[in-house]
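Please fill in the sequence for the structure shown.

STRUCTURE ENCODING:
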């Protein structure tokens, strides 16, 4: 069966895509929200940090919770909280209220993404797992392109309509996933849920150098691109001269790059040695990041090149993401929920650091952003070269 038509794969992709919708849909409205709440775009940008920090912290628990009470129940509770928090965001009358309800969104919003990762490995094995992960990544990749475009048009009905949309998305995800997805964490396999047990599992996971370097590299690769997503209101409007309804000029090309990379991951699964794909991906990303850095330093801004290099970077990033993600989960086959949580935590920790610290430093120029991307990628390259996955093997 075509994986794009498989209801289980679609349900998993819908769950995973909640995160980019929660982050990207309201980006075009930063200036409008700031005016309406008597604030500034910088303070509204910090609402991303208020979302990402609790999101990051809770990713440490969603997987462990799902290992204890089941995958489906974790999805229901997490997304129900996200639903009510989205309504709260729509009713906010001050930036402080927006921060509060965005934090609540972050607490519940990670459940879908974390549990979806674990369920991929619960349901599928080997090369098929990589193909499914790549397929989900393709569908997932569409969300960052659609979200800001959709958000820009929703602004015609008031910025509050964006958060009403997010509430409806969460409700739909709960209904669809509970109808389509089986419970993959059977009662006999469930692990105890207490802080001591969870802490013990995380100590074991984060002491594993292979797992740690894999998730660090994965996080750095994605965060290098995510830097531009978080900075998009300034990057597009202030630096490149676009309007609130022209965010598609960034997100469509970059998502097309992600889709191309995901297709490479899907087609090479079980055909080409993963180590070779990893090496190709990093060579390509390094080439694009260096080209972007040189261009931004010596040549005046031109959206075709400023955005084009990021889109090309995403081809390599997306081509290797499923391989690294599956390899990390395979480090702990009996605690995949916890492993998925650890993976998501590190990825969101990077994103939170980028949102709260690096973006405000880099977003004043295209060169600053290109330098941020390059340095984050170099860190990811350092980490992946410390793993067994990087080691070249002649056999498939």
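FILLED IN BY: designer on duty
SEQUENCE:
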């Amino acid at each position: 069966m075509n994986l794009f038509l498989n209801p289980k794969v679609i349900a998993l992709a819908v769950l995973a895509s909640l995160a980019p919708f929660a982050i990207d849909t309201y980006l075009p409205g930063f200036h409008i929200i700031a005016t309406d709440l008597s604030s500034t775009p910088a303070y509204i940008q910090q609402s991303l940090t208020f979302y990402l920090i609790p999101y990051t912290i809770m990713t440490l628990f969603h997987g462990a919770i799902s290992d204890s009470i089941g995958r489906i129940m974790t999805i229901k509770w997490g997304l129900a909280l996200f639903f009510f928090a989205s309504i709260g965001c729509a009713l906010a009358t001050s930036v402080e209220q927006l921060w509060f309800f965005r934090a609540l969104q972050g607490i519940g919003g990670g459940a879908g993404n974390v549990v979806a990762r674990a369920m991929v490995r619960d349901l599928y094995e080997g090369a098929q797992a990589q193909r499914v992960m790549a397929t989900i990544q393709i569908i997932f990749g569409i969300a960052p392109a659609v979200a800001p475009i959709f958000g820009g048009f929703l602004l015609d009905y008031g910025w509050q309509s964006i958060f009403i949309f997010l509430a409806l998305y969460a409700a739909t995800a709960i209904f669809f996933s509970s109808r389509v997805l089986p419970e993959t964490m059977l009662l006999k396999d469930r692990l105890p849920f207490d802080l001591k047990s969870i802490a013990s599992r995380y100590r074991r996971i984060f002491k594993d150098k292979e797992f740690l370097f894999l998730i660090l590299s994965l996080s750095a690769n994605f965060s290098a691109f995510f830097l531009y997503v978080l900075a998009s209101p300034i990057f597009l409007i202030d630096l490149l001269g676009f309007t609130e309804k022209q965010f598609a000029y960034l997100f469509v090309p970059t998502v097309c790059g992600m889709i191309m990379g995901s297709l490479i991951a899907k087609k090479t699964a079980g055909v080409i040695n993963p180590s070779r794909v990893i090496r190709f991906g990093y060579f390509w990303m390094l080439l694009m990041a260096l080209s972007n850095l040189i261009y931004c330093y010596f040549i005046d801004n031109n959206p075709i090149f400023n955005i084009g290099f990021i889109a090309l970077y995403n081809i390599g990033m997306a081509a290797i993401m499923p391989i690294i993600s599956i390899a990390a989960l395979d480090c702990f086959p009996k605690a995949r929920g916890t492993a998925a949580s650890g993976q998501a935590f590190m990825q969101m920790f990077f994103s939170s650091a980028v949102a709260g610290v690096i973006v405000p430093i880099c977003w004043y120029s295209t060169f600053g952003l290109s330098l941020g991307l390059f340095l984050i990628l170099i860190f990811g390259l350092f980490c992946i070269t410390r793993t067994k996955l990087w080691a070249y093997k002649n056999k498939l």
